[in-house]
Amino acid sequence: MLTVPAHPLLDLQAFVTEFPRPLAELPSPPALLAGLGLELTAPLHSDDPVRAAVRDLLRSGGFKPTGRSKPASEYLLKAAAEGLAGINAAVDACNVASLHSGLPISVVDLERVTPPLRVEVAAPGSSYVFNRSGQTIDIGGLLVLADAEGPCAGPVKDSQRSKTGPETTRTLSLVWGSVALPGRALQTANWYRELLHSLGATTTAP
Predict the structure, then answer these.
(1) Is the dihedral angle over the CA atoms 65, 174, 97, 8 positive or is it negative?
(2) Separation in Å, CA 183 to CA 25, 71, 90, 101, 186
């Protein structure tokens, strides 16, 4: 399902999740929503070395992870300090794991992407719409997930066309880890999967 080429810095962990019901019928429990705050005693926590390693990973193809293009995990840290709201069970579990681990994570609805799926460095000038307002992000030089139609997700922002919705029952998650942080991507993925299992979901290799 997923092709991941060799990369000098990327330590990617990926898995598929099957939810027992559509996300509209699977509200996030209070325990999961509590993890969207910075007070949670989590198995992982972000720090400056983690943030530096993630930024180095994103820079490896020529991308500049600054300003509005900073890693998704850094955006979550700022949002959590201001009060991070829940979205749906799939995204909330993703955000909890990303917020506390410091690693950006993508989650896409597998019914909204077209195989084959692959990880690649986006070509210069590449972009996609990332929200309902139609705003676009320049992803040239960024490591991304691509399908038959082109790039659809990445460690800064996922594309609007691949995002989960009320009807979602099956997702692909990508933990964008770095070899400079040995074992962290796997530890993050394992904890993330535990959060999903607590919702009654099942997870498998892609």
Answers:
(1) negative
(2) 34, 19, 23, 12, 5
Q: Any idea which residue has 């020529």 for tokens?
A: 62
Return the axis-axis angle of helices 72-82 and 89-101, rounded to nearest 10°.
Answer: 100
DSSP strands (E only) in 28-83: none
Cα separation, 105 vs 176, in Å, equals 6
Q: What is the pLDDT of residue 1?
A: 84
Q: Among 105, 155, 167, 119, which Cα is nearest to 1's?
A: 119
Q: What is the tens place of the pLDDT at every residue in 20-33?
A: 999 999 999 999 99
Q: Flag residues of the chain having pLDDT under 50.
A: none
> HEC profile for 159-204?
CHHHCCCCCCCEEEEEEEEECCCCCHHHHHHHHHHHHHHCCCCEEE
Neighbours of 60 (CB within 10 A): 17
Residue 146: the pLDDT is: 98
Under 8 Å between Cβ of 93 and 36: no
The rounded distance, in Å, linking the Cα atoms of 90 and 17 is: 9
